[in-house]
Amino acid sequence: MSESKLMKGNEALAEAAIRAGCNAYFGYPITPQSEILEYLAGEGRSRGMIVLQAESEVASINMVYGAAGAGARVMTSSSSPGISLMQEGISYIACAELPCLVVNVNRGGPGLGTIQPSQGDYFQAVKGGGHGDYRLLVLAPASVQEMADFVFDAFDLADKYRTPVMILADGALGQMMEKVAFRDYVPAEHILPKPWATTGKPKSRERNIITSLHIEPEKMEQINLRLQEKYRLMAARETRCEHFLTDDAEYLLVAYGLAARIAQGAVEMARARGIKAGLLRPVTLFPWPTDAVRALAGSVKGVLVVEMNAGQMVEDVRLAVEGRTPVRFHGRMGGIIPSPDEVLAALETMVHDAVPQHEEAY
Q1: Percent of the chain scored above 70 by pLDDT?
Q2: Which whole number is the average pLDDT over 121-131?
Q3: Is 79:30 a contact under the CB 8 Å cutoff?
Q4: pLDDT at 358 over 90
Q5: Cβ atoms of 126 and 289 closer than 8 Å
Q6: I need a labelling partner for 52 at 20 to 30 A (CA). Which of 156, 255, 259, 339 fits?
Q7: Sign of torsion, CA 88 110 259 328?
Q8: Exposed, middle or buried by CB within 10 Å (0-12, 13-18, 19+), for 316?
Q9: Do residues 41 and 53 touch, judged by C-beta distance below 8 A?
Q10: Are 136 and 166 in contact (CB under 8 A)?
């Protein structure tokens, strides 16, 4: 690891992209992620990266499509409304099975909304925001350090599975400053050969064709079956989550990203008050840690899901819990970040409601 530096989350992510061997970046400025483009336009260009501000998000994602098809290690970034504009292109890239990195520094919505942080894009990221039966592998950082670390992971996973990978952060993580140390990483040791890329046709092989258009339904079904098998393989191999004080927990909090940091604070406060709380933090939002939540659901008295939205991941928690214990939700919207105190209050209400009346006097 290199020496620690104090950096803003967006800038740490951009620096990591340079160190990860990213050849090209295409994007369009939008708050709160514009520093990624700004940093790469300076540092990235000076260190050999192609960096282009496209005329729109639609243009930028299609430039990513072209560069990925030519074998480049390529990325784009945007924030909520901009990611919405990219959805058609992301669907094309997923069908064409091209590796790339898409970064969404989530802001409050719907509509143009606010530039304040949010987790309102969970559905869009995890369920496939565009058309067709495709998924993205989605990583959810909870610190500036992870904003950097996950870039290396994302590019490697994209190459491994020939798939677009998304880093889903929120506006606060993009803007906050923390210490970050960059891992020792030699791109040449990680970037996989791409014999499928459109890099010119030698006489020794047939031409490579990259497309997402397949008129014959039988062909389209075979591609879909291959994609679904790939997603099952991702779920078996790449699911990631973190446990905090879950071994003896009687109440489980589930949260990701910045909300998980807040929830961890609430768990520590709850422990100080004698409430045996624990936290499970999904690190991959797809594949989602269904088995980990299911394993804990049978041993806790209740689950509290904390999100910065109206309740999106809570649906996946309920599916995993399968009705074996109560599931409640606490969320804030519009760019408001919940406090540890209010999360603790929601947990205490759950604990109170779970205690039979005849036990309350003891």
Answers
A1: 98
A2: 95
A3: yes
A4: no
A5: no
A6: 156
A7: negative
A8: buried
A9: yes
A10: yes
